[in-house]
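QA checklist item 7 of 12: single-chain prediction sanity check.
[x] sequence parsed
[x] length recorded as 455
[x] structure emitted
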Amino acid sequence: MKRFWQIIIISTVLFFVPWLILFKLGINSLPIQSQDTVPALFTPISILEHGNLYLDEYYNMMIKEYPNTADMDQSLGLTPYYLRKVDTHYVSAFPLIISLLALPVYILPVLLHVSFTWNTLAILGHLSGSLILAFAGGFFYLLLKDIFKLDSKKSLMLTGIYLFGTVNFAMISQALWQHGALQLFSILGLYFLLFYTQQSFSYKHLFLSGLFFGLAALSRPTAALTIILVGLYIGMLEFKQPQKLLKSYSAFSIGVLLNVLFFVIYNGIFYKSVENQGYANQLFKNWVDTFPVSFFGVWISPSKGILVYSPVFVFSLVGAWRALKSKSLLNILFTIIIVLHTLVISFWKYWFGGWSYGYRLSSDVIPYLVLLLIPYINSPLYEITKKIFFTCIVTSVLIELTGLVYFDGIWHAAYDRGYTNIGWLWSIKDSEFVFYARRILVKLHLLRKACPTCL
């Protein structure tokens, strides 16, 4: 457990301190990464001070700084997209779980009656996001070491890739994104699932797996895909033992259903109807037909592609190929989770993740992409291509570090044309990363402006 806590402490420092320095020096002056994360900054305060989820007291502060008038529903009053108005109260349009995870960070400031300015909230949000991802990294290390039986060196290497070679570094660890909670609970769900199937064979671990996968789905609905696929995986393992299969499904389902019960209770008290949940009213109107271009965009778009921002995942494709060739049921499960998730979001209006750095929406499957590196590093091919692999790791980390330094929304303001005209997502010369490279040249006085076509 010593290494577990070392990972948490070191990664929290590496996530939080560089941002704080950059912010204080004015190098990256963006305090809040996205309006999507705004309600999650205030919900912990409301829970601790008032014992409810209502954001009425903070509405004026939110709408003054982030009015988002273009997306306001006039029938509900001046309600920006990130809030919902229920009777006379305002609540977050996004899932609750990430705010619950942030509660420990908020306890002391609330007890000390700290004045919650935007700068204070930015610090609390970044610290909370950093801690959530750091704990995910700690548990990911235990998953690799205890379950997959990798040695310490390989476990640390893959944990480092997970934390710093992906958008977890530049984006997910830097705000109260729901993706951080989903990853944390997915890792825990997978840990107890595999602990059950490989070591304990105790139904309590299967119950815990269902509980954590259910929390992942409460964090972001897309995790429901994983629950279904995990259920199929359990069935394939135990279909020859009907009685055992029934007990396994019962234990796993009870864990999942406890989350459903929690959702029903807090939704009934504070949201009144499931229609007031933010994702509910998007369910039938935010699907657009840009497939298959969007599917390839999820993977290789110059500004949002998984393989562009984390080129190390090219070797995950190698791992997936080896999994299919060897018929490894577990690795095939990971492959299907990744493919189905990227397939689903490729039909989503904002498949590119909106105003964010890199492949934010695909960050939900980062743990599975890293796990698919295991078949590769355990193969003879690893020794042959090790230099290329480590070059890709270093490149991935540098790309994410660039995002931490420069992501401030300016590129989106200059080039973003929305979801109907997606040509801007395929431009190489005006891609997000090239734009940041030009900003470096501007700072070195080697270029006049980073956006040649902007006024």
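[x] summary fact logged: The radius of gyration is 22 Å.
[ ] second reviewer sign-off
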